[in-house]
Specification:
single chain; alpha+beta; six-stranded mixed β-sheet; five-stranded antiparallel β-sheet
Length: about 450
């Protein structure tokens, strides 16, 4: 607990103009300072900072408060974190409870792992630039990532050997232990080998820009071998839990805070492609969208656009995402991709215009799912079991949408699309319960489009 006296001292002593000015270009107008609001998009400045009142207010979106609220919101950080950082900067002591030996050991381990991960990023980058990285560089060029883009996104290469990382960074017993803890190296029966050998590498950073983990993509002849996973993440560690992190989250945050939608994709190449088109894109890391992801998005107060591959797996992912997003009241839309496309290949064909259209034309998730069920029911014709299965496939949706006017309106839409009464639908949903749908209807709207050859 931080004493109230310390909090008040921080608010009184901190120069709000200086702190806000690190994030907003301010211009003095009379006794106040004005600039473009960081919390919504605007062309004329309506964001006002008053040093006399030690506060800020935006006359465009209504956001306002003191310097602590500003930093919590603009940096998406907790109140204690912000207070402690400012107190340290301004020399304000905070009484601290004695730290236990366990806490000190845990903090020391985490700090070591973060520092080691930074060295690993450098190692992977060097491997990509080396002569042995030529095939990886060629593959990345084919995927639209030239050396400049690779540098911007810190893309690297795991190297061709079995234990290059182990030999390069595992010089001491402590370093070797930490490489194993991070899951970057794995113990075999008689040896230790690098988890990401022969893969292109994508560092995963948290909101504080610390490297928490890595994702690796196989390519070339190895991609064609049976049993070789296309994508691989390092195992979970004291600093990495894949159920709560997003690839490229720090870069997306600025746009999200300005009111742009958070575009969720599944692949690292997809996130890079959409980010380069100016979207707030981020990818889950080898997992479906989880409740922890959803709560993170809820804290950001973000509208979500799901942009997954135009195939059956993408259809199933829409349901999984809806089941965790909708109960939290998160506005969620779905961007339709042609069958055979993923966001990366779609953007390669359509460019900025196509990427912008994906978000602009994305449909509300409930409407998207209802229309899919209606098409499946119509396709079933006189096959009654198939029609019933299509109708009951909506049960999960109406379990996920919170009670209220929105749910009532979507129930009315579903009834009209399926040619049933609301009472009939509600009865079927009760009987269907919330069991997994075995024959989920396809949700595609576009004709099949062959995927480009380089999309391995």
């Amino acid at each position: 607990m931080i004493p109230e006296s310390v909090i008040e001292a921080v608010k009184d002593r901190v120069d709000i103009v200086q702190v806000v000015g690190r994030h907003v270009a301010l211009k003095r107008v009379g006794r106040a300072y004005v600039g473009l609001c960081p919390f919504h998009t605007e062309k004329s400045p309506s964001f006002n900072v008053s040093p006399d009142r030690r506060g800020y207010h935006c006359f465009g979106c209504g956001e306002g408060g003191n310097v602590l609220r500003f930093l919590c919101k603009v940096q998406n950080r907790s109140f204690p974190e912000v207070v402690r950082e400012l107190a340290k900067e301004y020399g304000i002591p905070i009484p601290e409870a004695p730290e236990s030996p366990e806490d000190r050991a845990r903090d020391a381990l985490r700090n070591r792992l973060f520092a080691l991960n930074e060295r690993v990023v450098t190692f992977f980058r060097e491997q990509l630039s080396a002569d042995t990285g030529e095939e990886a560089r060629k593959y990345l060029e084919e995927r639209g990532l030239n050396p400049g883009v690779c540098a911007e996104f810190e893309v690297g290469f795991g190297g061709p050997g079995w234990d290059g990382l182990w030999q390069a960074l595992g010089k001491t017993d402590q370093e070797r232990e930490d490489l194993l803890t991070l899951g970057l190296c794995v113990k075999g029966d008689n040896n230790v080998y690098d988890r990401f050998r022969g893969r292109v590498i994508f560092p995963i950073r948290d909101e504080k820009l610390r490297v928490v983990g890595f994702g690796g993509r196989v390519f070339g002849e190895r991609a064609k071998k049976e049993g070789v996973a296309k994508y691989l993440n390092n195992s979970e560690s004291p600093i990495y839990e894949k159920s709560q992190v997003f690839y490229r989250l720090p870069q997306a945050l600025t746009r999200i805070r300005r009111g742009e939608a958070a575009v969720i994709v599944e692949g690292y190449f997809d996130a890079i492609a959409l980010e380069r088109c100016g979207l707030a894109a981020m990818a889950t890391c080898g997992t479906a969208l989880t409740p922890r992801h959803a709560h993170h998005l809820q804290r950001l107060k973000a509208e979500v656009v799901l942009c997954w591959d135009g195939d059956a797996a993408g259809d199933r992912a829409v349901r999984k995402a809806g089941e965790v997003l909708l109960p939290l009241g998160i506005t969620t839309r779905v961007a339709s991709l042609p069958i055979g496309d993923d966001p990366d290949t779609y953007v390669a064909r359509t460019g900025l215009t196509g990427a912008s259209r994906l978000v602009k034309e994305a449909e509300p998730l409930p409407k998207f799912v209802i229309q899919a069920a209606a098409r499946a029911a119509e396709d079933a014709g006189d096959d009654i079991p198939r029609r019933v299965a299509a109708i009951r496939s909506l049960a999960w949706l109406f379990h996920a949408i919170p009670a209220g006017l929105e749910k009532d309106l979507y129930l009315d839409l579903a009834a009209k699309k399926l040619g049933l009464t609301q009472e009939q639908l509600q009865r079927e949903f009760r009987e269907a319960g919330h069991r997994p749908v075995v024959h989920a209807p396809a949700v595609h709207q576009a004709a099949p489009v062959p995927a480009p050859a380089q999309n391995l």
